[in-house]
């Protein structure tokens, strides 16, 4: 049979716990953030009657959600530190994806991905999906921004694309 030394068993247990602990703490931190996000969504539903049937959360901070029946968009570039922007899509005439990039060694490097929102009576403003200054690489942001552009355009008071660029 095997002779198990108590010292070896104790060292093995300590090393196993030391290996598992960071994963556990990260899991707890992420679940706390998700609970906070769920609480925010419930508060929006209760206080403003907004039912976000479509929503996305990425990079542990960005959040976007849509109530298609009321045409309300909820967005935050840092959901854990700031109140979300609540946008009535009835007051928006257009939306357009914008990509800022530069070239390095004949490769395109994306610096920013934004949805530019064109309100009816206000100046256009960006909804940030990716910022190269904050994050080192793109993940699902290009697919996500195209999804939201495609999802939002049919809900807007349509204005021709040429007028949005002006």
TrEMBL record:
Question: Membrane-spanning regions, if any?
Answer: 6-27
Q: Which UniProt keywords apply?
A: Membrane, Transmembrane, Transmembrane helix
Tell me yes or no: is Membrane among this UniProt entry's keywords.
Answer: yes
- Spell out the protein name for this chain: Uncharacterized protein
- The species this protein was found in: Cecembia calidifontis
């Amino acid at each position: 049979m095997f002779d198990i030394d108590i010292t070896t068993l104790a060292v093995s247990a300590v090393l196993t716990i030391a290996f598992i602990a960071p994963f556990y703490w990260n899991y707890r931190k992420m679940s706390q953030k998700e609970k906070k996000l769920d609480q925010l969504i419930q508060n929006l539903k209760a206080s403003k009657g907004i039912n976000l049937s479509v929503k996305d959360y990425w990079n542990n901070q960005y959040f976007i959600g849509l109530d298609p029946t009321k045409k309300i968009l909820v967005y935050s570039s840092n959901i854990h530190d700031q109140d979300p922007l609540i946008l009535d899509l009835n007051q928006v005439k257009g939306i357009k994806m914008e990509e800022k990039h530069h070239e390095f060694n004949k490769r395109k490097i994306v610096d920013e991905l934004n949805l530019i929102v064109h309100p009816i009576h206000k100046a256009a403003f960006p909804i940030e999906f990716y910022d190269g200054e904050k994050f080192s690489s793109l993940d699902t942001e290009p697919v996500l921004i195209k999804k939201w552009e495609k999802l939002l355009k049919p809900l807007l008071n349509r204005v021709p694309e040429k007028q949005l660029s002006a």
